[in-house]
Amino acid sequence: MTEHAHVEEHFAGSNKLFISIWGWLVALTLVEIFLAYAVERTGMDLLDGGRQILEVGAKILQFRHKGFFSCEILAQLERVDDFRARKQAIVGRYDEALQDQRGLSLLQRHPTETFPFFYVVRVLDGCRDAMMAHLRSRGVGTGVHYTPNHLQPAFSAFRTPLPVTEQVYEEILTLPLFYEMDEDQVGQVIEGVRGFFL
Prior knowledge:
It is a single chain. The chain is mainly α. The protein has two domains: 1-39; 44-196, Aspartate Aminotransferase, domain 1. The chain has helices spanning 3-39, 66-77, 80-98, 128-137, 163-171, 183-196, and strands spanning 51-53, 104-106, 119-123, 142-144, 172-175. The strands form two sheets. Strands 2-3-5 form a three-stranded antiparallel beta sheet. Strands 1-4 form a two-stranded parallel sheet. The radius of gyration is 23 Å and the shape is globular.
């Protein structure tokens, strides 16, 4: 075999390997997207009137293609300062509008020192579910993050009473907090929460 033929054969083999790897990446990504959607439909946008409560009933097979998602994360890192600043601004607006609201207890936060992920409040006097329904009727979705492990079906065999944890769980409510929220949407959430207590 000539050197030229050997080089051509090498590149042909490399191309096949590259196409094969790329094919597997695409296939695994599509499978993961399908499984993620089938197992739990989630999203950052809670302004669809939905209610999100994560329940774990059994072991869930979960895998990530680290290379693919690492590239996505690296691309997002370029905007991390914008994401942080916007979410800190939303948290500041919520805190200012809700700090003296009777029936609510705000968590102690240091938003300028952290990267806000959730905005959780405690709804007192057993009114959490009623507030969720009230907000849902106004197009504001909410969540409960998260159900304590000892109340998850997967751990029912080990269940033991934890009264303080269970009380807090019945009070916590996650309000929408995502980078793309505009000022009107933030106002919609605040108006909905304050309107519940009128």
